[in-house]
Amino acid sequence: MLVTLMPKNISFNCQEGETVYDAAARAGIRFPISCRNGVCHVCRGELLSGKVISGIEREPVKVLNGEPKTLMLCHIKPLSSCKIRIEDVYAKGELPVKPVSCQVIGVEQIQSHIYVAQLLLPAGKQPDFFAGQYLSLDLPGRSTPCYFSIASRPGVRTLELHIQADPHLENALEVVRYLESSKSVKVKLPFGKACLPEVPTQPLILMAAGTGFAQMKSIVEFLLANNFSHAITLYWGVRKAEDMYLKPLALLWQRENPQFRFIEIIADMEDQLGVEHHNQMAEAVVASNHDLGASLVFVSGSPRLVFSVLGTLEENGLPTAQLFSDVLEYSERP
Questions:
Q1: What tens digit of pLDDT does each residue of 89-146 get?
Q2: Of 32, 96, 171, 310, whose CB has the highest number of CB atoms within 10 Å?
Q3: What is the pTM of this model?
């Protein structure tokens, strides 16, 4: 039976005799529930259409004359397809964005204009995030937040950020100066749909340009921590060899994990507007003869890079739905 949660219009199948809550959890869908902590009525929803049976009253309940019926979703079991209204629902791969104040552990300049910042989440209940997501920093006096990929894997208190602060990047320089001089910073997280809510069952191709490596670091460390056995291939493209600021880490992953392969792509170019390196990265993937139809691809870089890669890999057998990038959330495909 099909259950649809409104107003987000999230649907999932519920088996005979299964509660709405259990079926939703099986599908990776979450909504508030606290009966296990001794608090009831948190999972209250309104039956908009269909017929259910309550585990408490044990009598069939259905909507009559269009009047919604309020029920506890941890108890009701559908007898037909139905629609239910409930707030604060999160689909698979979706987490609530939460504000939090982090302690600034330190900021280190590790390569040319690349800085690594370490932020410590407060003790106790911490906001969840998935591997590959990003956060926002809210600096005093700024009307807009600054967004950075989380380079740490989920499940740790320390959030690592990679910041490229070239002299002409005033916003990035402002962030570095603030973190260097502050004991704490206000953060919101998580953001982004190009992430891994769970360990996948397919090989992964990861493609990063510059500090896009941060997103891939989170994904790789999450997979390795969960004993991922499928192939992981990381392509890291930079303009100059010295821009590959954490190459020793990528090489360490390769030495210690037989399923991991690292391919560096150095454009060796000074032209900051050139696109040749975009083609180099896509061509390197095609030349490696991956089974693109069976792979998941994550790309972190500029819109031009992402759409160049997407077009080339589609032509070589990659289904469009198997490529993930934050760029696809805010940029129209040319």
A1: 877 777 888 999 999 999 999 988 999 999 999 988 788 899 999 999 999 988 889 9
A2: 310
A3: 0.80
DSSP label at residue 121:
P
Structural tokens at position 295? 């792979």
How far out from the chain centre does Cα 85 lie? 27
Q: What is the CATH number of the domain that holds 119?
A: 2.40.30.10
CB atoms within 10 A of CB 204: 22
Name the amino acid, one letter, at 254.
Q
Helix (H) or strand (E) holding 135, with range, is strand 134-138
Task: Give the full edge-to-edge strand order of the sheet including 98-111.
Answer: 146-149, 134-138, 184-191, 98-111, 114-120, 158-164
Identify the H or E element spanning 20: helix 20-26
Relative orientation angle of helices 213-225 and 247-256, to the nearest 10 degrees: 20
Q: Which residue has the tokens 């519920």?
A: 14
**What domain range includes position 171?**
98-191
CA distance 23 to 255: 42
Q: How far apart are CA 73 and CA 12, in angstroms?
A: 14
Helix or strand (DSSP H, E) at 308: helix 303-315
Closest CA to 19 of 71, 94, 93: 71
**Are 186 and 157 within one domain?**
yes
One domain, residues 257 and 212: yes
